[in-house]
Amino acid sequence: RPAIVWFRDDLRIADHPALHAALELGQPIVAVYVLDEQSSGVRPLGGAARWWLHQSLRSLAASIEALGARLTLRRGAAGPIIASIAQETHASAVFWNRRYGLAERTLDTAIKSDLRASGVDARSFAGSLLFEPWTIQTGQGGSYSVFTPFWRACTAGAPPRAPHPEPRSISGWEGVLDADSFSSDDLDTWGLEPSSPDWAGGLRAAWAPGEASAHALLDAFLAESLPRYGSDRDQPAQNATSRLSPHLRWGEISPYQVWSATQEAQRGLTGPALASAARFLTEVGWREFAYHVLFNAPDLATRNLRSAFDAFPWPPLDREALTAWQQGRTGFALVDAGMRELWRTGSMHNRVRMVTASFLIKNMLVDWRVGERWFWDTLVDADAASNPFGWQWVAGSGADAAPYFRIFNPDLQAAKFDPHQQYIRENIPEFGTDAYPAPLVDLGETRRAALAAYERVKNPS
Ligand code: FAD
């Protein structure tokens, strides 16, 4: 009887706890991925994420085939699909790595109990986070809303486990499933990739989804950039960050692998270079924190964490202005460079994410949720925890957030973090010519308007 391994946000072979445990059973493996756009509450993927998923599944299917098995692809509500594959194959076990959104958890809990009720050994594993969100608690047994004590609590305990090695082979289940004319070529019929127009050229040029590229990026980052990460990470033109976020989002690499390789690489470093390594691991910690917050506030993408912000008087949405922001035509160079980088490559440097988000929320007075949705649709690393967490952080409505009255000045940010305008010129070919748009807003006036609106949060009527 086979064991089923259900792949979800963990599109890798190495350090995959569910696959590892299934292989230890010594039974043939049925590897399954379900594109679930039907189960209630599961947030539909954005366009850039769908593009990434397509490439990543193709890469995973190839890796599984090279090891001797196959990846079965299905589309529909995951519950009935997993149940029917278990029944058809007479599987004795179904294993998966955990997800942390409420809709996903609810679904997984129901599937687990149904499978167990029919005698199947259904088990979930920790594969995507170093610290399971419910295991990190304050002295009073609650959850954390401030990063520093959260991360202190995480790092005070036992260090993260060592990664599981990559399996040398996977013995695939020999049977044929009812719908098994479906091969990885049929991925094309899922329509995850854009066709007309094909807007993904810039994504293809910028990224190589898949497990092998994730490790190549990590290795290159550790060898070349880790020692200067602390000093250069805020400068978008420096390429000093790892660019691992989409690979972590899709689980092509695990945080355990990142953690352990960084520990290895930092041996022998001293002074600022050693501090850089700690800084990098702390950023990985922010990802953990975003999940901790999401776990405890499942509606993070739609509800202000600080309910006082419900009183914020957002003016009616100016659609034309919103389009100018989305297209990088606000007349503020760092904002426009970021928005264009996002549109072209499906990504944006962290510093610039903060600046573009602050500009939308505080200089354009647009509700952070509108920006969150645009990022969700356009980022290849669009993440159910980190994206709304980042937006609420900038808005001031979130956990351990920047205070609302701290309003980035996009020109000063540009002078500080892109002093030679290298990043700006890379992303705005017409910068400095007449073709470049005039400023969309007056920074001083909009700043005053934002602060006045914020008074309503402090003193709701
Ligand atoms: P590195 O600096 O190399 O950091 C290593 C890893 O740590 C990253 O890959 C990421 O997984 C994690 N990390 C780093 N900074 C953060 C952070 N502030 N919050 C959470 N995790 C972090 N990150 C996403 O992965 N997905 C998102 O959808 C996302 N949306 C964001 C929206 C806004 C408004 C803001 C301000 C930030 C957002 N971030 C998001 C966080 C951060 O911008 C990216 O993780 C980072 O830019 C990725 O680049 P990197 O992999 O080179 O990061």
Automatic annotation (TrEMBL):
Enumerate the residues binding FAD.
Y229, T241, S242, R243, L244, S245, F280, D381, A382, D383
Among the record's GO biological process terms, what is one? response to light stimulus
Alphabetized, the UniProt keywords read: Chromophore, FAD, Flavoprotein, Lyase
One GO term in the molecular function aspect is: deoxyribodipyrimidine photo-lyase activity
Query: What SUPFAM superfamilies does UniProt report for this protein, alphabetically?
Result: Cryptochrome/photolyase FAD-binding domain (SSF48173), Cryptochrome/photolyase, N-terminal domain (SSF52425)
Determine if Flavoprotein is one of this entry's keywords.
Answer: yes
What positions does the domain Photolyase/cryptochrome alpha/beta occupy?
1-130
Which cofactors does it use? FAD
Q: How is the cofactor bound?
A: Binds 1 FAD per subunit.
Q: Which family does it belong to?
A: Belongs to the DNA photolyase family.
| Protein name in the entry | Deoxyribodipyrimidine photo-lyase
Q: Which organism is it from?
A: Cryobacterium glaciale
Q: What is the lineage of its organism?
A: Bacteria, Bacillati, Actinomycetota, Actinomycetes, Micrococcales
